[in-house]
Design goal:
With about 1000 residues, this protein is an alpha/beta fold. Helices cover about 45% and strands about 10% of the residues. The strands form six sheets. A six-stranded antiparallel sheet has the order 12-14-13-16-17-15, with helices on both faces. A hairpin with a 5-residue loop joins strand 8 and strand 9 (about 205). Helix 26 (about 670-690) packs across helix 27. The two termini are about 55 Å apart.
Length: about 1000
């Protein structure tokens, strides 16, 4: 064990607590039992079998109110692995559930035996026919697919609110639709073909002309059974009419029985049945979609009404006018959405009865847009609108920023309302559909039902399609609350079916909470046909039992999860999973959601239980050490949960008093530390030249093993040499801004200056001074910057005392340099800009907070793009450039300036679709290089698919991380700007 290995006990929850009724039992503490673990390891390899108790717990939760612990989690890489898993399960009598994003709201992504992660190795988009079609792998998010298709002026039909996180495979398996898809743009209508694996292991590609012949040979009984069911359904005119009527409105409850009417052959029938089958018929390995035009001319309005029923009554008029989306939000939803950044604060005081419609028209050209606007104005003349807050305009707009804000508020329905629920309560998300002309009546009836059962109303939905969503919060640990939920569900199902002949699930799919009510909606005849269809396709019941079909009338009450209170920053989490695609450690250890899920399980456990011990033992590395701390999860979370901050807090808890004192000492004496670091880099360079990088790598690895991997960085060949000891000479008189070179740029040289292969180049400091001078806005570098820092070094590691010392020092110094804030402070590393502008604030004294409010902190790229570029003359351009936006730039909202600078310097600029946090995170890429390797893998593959003339970013450590990932030297866009604007002949 390393000398300074942290004690896992430091993270043990210190609160007095009783064991929760749904806690993981002690019998599961050892993880996957034998012989299951060894058999699957022999079948797939150890790296594809996750068996520790921490692995099982982190996969036990999804976005639903349910929680089931799998026996094992498998991570297949290809079709051979999937077929092997299914064959194993078939032979051993085991059950399999497939899980991708885990954003499903009804427990479809949970299993009690073998759970298969089909997200990690199953991403990719291939554009076909100039964008008219797209081949997409199941682990690809809808947002990622649409990002690629946007270049071709196309997009996918399904557009669920969770597009940032939900995957194509899950969307197809649930037939999730969204704001605009309705019944005509969903997966069932826009899928060109599918490749899937049947429970037997047989692979079917519906686009293959020989698919039916091959299937008949491989699965003759299945083919005969499907054709027999087709004939039986078609012979029953009443049933046929009923099926057509059920799918005339949005409906994802049960199986797509219309597949038997629409498909002429077994393969075509299966193609239809797979859509909305929730993983019960097979694994969707690949999809080919017919894409739709991306109409870029958009006009939208957020219109406020005195009541929900008044808003609902206006929906048909906007439908007739051609609106592509009409979204409904009630007063509770509007008020809760103020927790979302950018939503007007005065919505918090909206009257309870207020409701709003988000109405959007999309057109391919100006003429079409104008025609829609005329139609919208005509509808508006007959509406009784209200202005319950000063920010309300009740006007249509073309402004993209305003429209994006409307949609941000709407898409945050589940997370914003769920995040504001009482602490400790479980969240149920229901959706249903009624004929659109019955929407107003349905709203009124739903509100009455919620009120009568003691639930706060929170309603939103795709009003254009008669599709409503609502939330219920209750304490699953209280039997009385569970029974209240059950009573509500019984009446709710009767209301939707008997009064409105609606769909109990419009787009969220049946799942565990509606499975017991399937027959209530479909009747015994159609329901029995669904059971028989399942028997034909999966005769031994390998796939996803109890998720669509369940004869237990109380199945919706089984597995409800309690939500124990955890750290305040994470307590509002509803485990939606929106944070996961942005997390750099997701493919290595854990995601933000999983970090919270694991912490909640610790709180369910009795103090000192074997399960708690197992979770604590793994949590240090899996959650705390391998968190990049970049907090991009905060940006992805609709309610701004910062799991990175929670991990930094845990790092602080693990520090000994001695470690905190040493960290504070380094802050007090940072001038000496900085000089020593520059000498160490120079020494490392010299040793590397003599003995090679392998010698340094070996020495640092030994030190890491002896001391602690999270304290001793590993030498990387990509590390540059030391920076020049002296900074460029500048004058205070006449300066337009104060230039603060970050300590990382005072220690490490730029890529050219630090390369033994090339001549010394222009440093970042020289570049910024030069371009500012050329633009007539010179900058001044204070003589006493040495020994100061943005405090991120201490902040990222949870050293609170050192953080406090340096945070106050830099603010006091900056206030003096800038003459009390009269000049802007330009910072040349995006992470340091974020640190000084925002992250230091909680650690400042009251006096220094007042000083900080006077400062204007500007990132150097923003300074160049907004203040210098218009005054510069570009005399030489490079051919192509690829840029890496840093996560700090995402927080600051500066990514567009990086693109602007790159476009000034290069004829062609590419921002990779898979660009994300590189996870180098200061020195974390040297402490845990496997984290950066994993985080950058997809972006690096995309970058290396071709060559570029320039590789640009905005932070030296991120540039080192991307160079390590791609093999290409990244440099600051400011260095490229200096080269591009250098006068001819120089």
């Amino acid at each position: 064990m390393p000398l300074l290995e942290p004690d896992p006990e430091a993270l043990r929850p210190g609160t007095a607590r009783a064991p929760a009724p749904d806690r993981v039992t002690d019998g599961s503490a050892a993880g996957t039992p034998e012989p299951l673990r060894s058999e699957l390891t022999a079948l797939l390899g150890a790296d594809k079998v996750l068996w520790k108790i921490s692995d099982l717990v982190r996969y036990a939760s999804d976005a639903s109110p349910y929680r089931f612990l799998p026996r094992v989690v498998l991570v297949p890489e290809d079709l051979d692995d999937v077929s092997a898993i299914l064959s194993y399960a078939h032979g051993k009598g085991r059950e399999v559930v497939f899980r991708a994003a885990g954003t499903s709201l009804n427990g479809q992504a949970q299993g009690e035996d073998i759970l298969v992660d089909v997200r990690r190795h199953w991403t990719g988009v291939e554009v076909l026919d100039d964008g008219a079609r797209a081949r997409i792998r199941p682990g690809t998010t809808i947002l990622r697919a649409n990002t690629t298709l946007a270049r071709y002026g196309r997009l996918l039909g399904p557009d669920p609110a969770s597009a940032v996180a939900c995957t194509v495979g899950g969307v197809v398996a649930n037939n999730a639709s969204g704001m605009t898809a309705g019944t005509t743009r969903n997966s069932y209508r826009t899928l060109a073909s599918l490749t899937f694996v049947l429970p037997s292991g047989t692979v079917v590609d519906t686009a293959d002309p020989a698919a039916d012949e091959e299937l008949a040979h491989a699965e003759p009984q299945l083919c005969a059974g499907l054709l027999a069911l087709k004939a039986e359904i078609e012979a029953d005119e009443e049933l046929t009419a009923r099926i057509r009527a059920k799918f005339a409105i949005k409906n994802t409850n049960g199986y797509r029985l219309d597949a038997f009417l629409d498909g002429a052959t077994p393969v075509r029938i299966l193609r239809g049945l797979m859509v909305g089958s929730e993983g019960t018929f097979g694994f969707i390995a690949e999809t080919v979609f017919d894409t739709l035009p991306l109409d870029r001319r958009i006009t939208s309005a957020l219109l406020f009404f005195p009541s929900l029923t008044a808003a609902a009554a206006a929906v048909p008029r906007f439908n007739e006018a051609g609106a592509i989306a009409v979204e409904l939000m009630d007063g509770n939803t509007l008020r809760a959405s103020v927790s979302v950044k950018g939503v007007p604060a005065d919505w918090a005081a909206l009257p309870r009865e207020t409701a709003a419609l988000l109405v959007e028209f999309r057109a391919p050209d100006e003429a079409g847009q104008e025609a829609f606007e005329v139609a919208a104005a005509e509808v508006m003349r007959g509406l009784d609108l209200v202005v319950p807050a000063a920010s309300v305009t009740n006007a249509f707009t073309r402004d993209a920023g305003t429209i994006a804000g409307y949609w941000k508020a709407r898409k945050a329905f589940v997370t914003a309302v769920g995040g504001s629920r009482p602490s400790g309560t479980t969240l149920i998300t229901e959706d249903f559909a009624v004929p659109p002309d019955r929407l107003a009546d349905a709203c009124e009836a739903l509100l009455e039902l919620q009120s009568r059962h003691g639930f706060d109303a929170a309603v939103a939905g795709h009003a254009a399609h008669g599709n409503l969503h609502f939330l219920l919060a209750f304490d699953a640990a209280r039997p009385g609350d569970v029974e209240r939920y059950d009573a509500f569900m019984q009446e709710f199902c009767a209301l939707v079916v008997d009064r409105f002949d609606g769909s109990l699930k419009a787009e969220h799919a049946t799942g565990r909470n509606i499975a017991p009510f399937l027959e209530r909606e479909w009747g015994p005849r159609a329901t029995e046909l669904m059971w028989r269809t399942k028997q034909v396709i999966d005769p031994v019941g390998v796939l996803a039992p109890r998720i669509v079909l369940d004869r237990d009338p109380r199945a919706h009450l089984r597995g409800l999860k309690t939500i124990p209170k955890v750290e305040a920053v994470a307590d509002p989490c509803i485990e939606c999973g929106f944070c996961e695609p942005t997390c750099p450690s997701g493919d290595l250890t854990t995601t933000p959601r999983q970090r919270i899920v694991l912490r909640r399980e610790m709180m369910r456990q009795a103090d000192g239980s074997p399960v708690e011990a197992g979770l604590l033992d793994a949590y240090g590395y899996d959650a705390v050490d391998t968190c990049a701390g970049d907090s991009t999860c905060k940006l992805a979370c609709p309610v701004g949960i910062d799991t990175g901050a929670m991990m930094k807090g845990f790092r602080h808890l693990r520090h000994t008093p001695r470690e905190e004192r040493i960290a504070a000492l380094t802050a007090k004496n940072f001038r000496v530390v900085e000089a020593s670091a520059r000498l160490a880099v120079a020494a490392g360079d010299a040793i590397g030249e003599r003995g090679g990088d392998r010698l340094l790598e070996s020495v640092t690895r030994l030190a890491r093993r002896a001391v602690r991997p999270d304290l001793v960085p590993e030498w990387l060949p990509q590390l540059p040499g030391r920076a020049a000891r002296k900074l460029p000479r500048t004058a205070r008189v006449g300066a337009s801004a104060v230039y603060y070179p970050a300590c990382v740029n005072r220690i490490f040289a730029g890529p050219e200056a630090g390369s033994a292969a090339g001549p010394p180049g222009t440093s970042l400091a020289e570049a910024l001074v030069a371009v500012s001078e050329r633009a007539g806005k010179p900058v001044w570098i204070p003589e006493d910057v040495a020994g100061t820092c943005c405090a991120t070094i201490w902040h990222s590691k949870g050293y609170d005392a050192g953080n406090r010392i340096m945070a106050n020092r830099i603010v006091e110094a900056a206030w003096g340099w800038t003459a009390g804030g009269t000049l802007p402070l330009v910072v040349d590393a995006s992470s340091c800009t974020l640190g000084i502008a925002e992250e230091v604030v909680p650690y400042l004294t009251e006096d220094n907070r007042a000083l900080h409010r006077e400062l204007t902190v500007v990132d150097s790229l923003v300074w160049a793009a907004d203040e210098l570029l218009a005054e510069l003359t570009v005399s030489r351009r490079t051919g192509s450039a690829v840029v890496h936006p840093t996560c700090s730039m995402e927080h600051l909202g500066d990514t567009e300036q990086l693109r602007v600078l790159a476009e000034a310097c290069a004829d062609e600029v590419t921002v990779p679709d898979d660009a994300g946090c590189c996870a180098f995170a200061g020195d974390r890429g040297m402490l845990h290089k496997e984290l950066t390797d994993t985080a950058t893998a997809k972006e690096a593959a995309e970058v290396n698919s071709r060559t570029y003339d320039a590789y640009l970013s905005a932070n030296r450590m991120c540039e080192i991380g991307m160079e390590r990932a791609t093999g290409h030297p990244y440099r600051s866009a400011l260095i490229e700007l200096e080269r591009a604007t250098r006068p001819p002949g120089r």
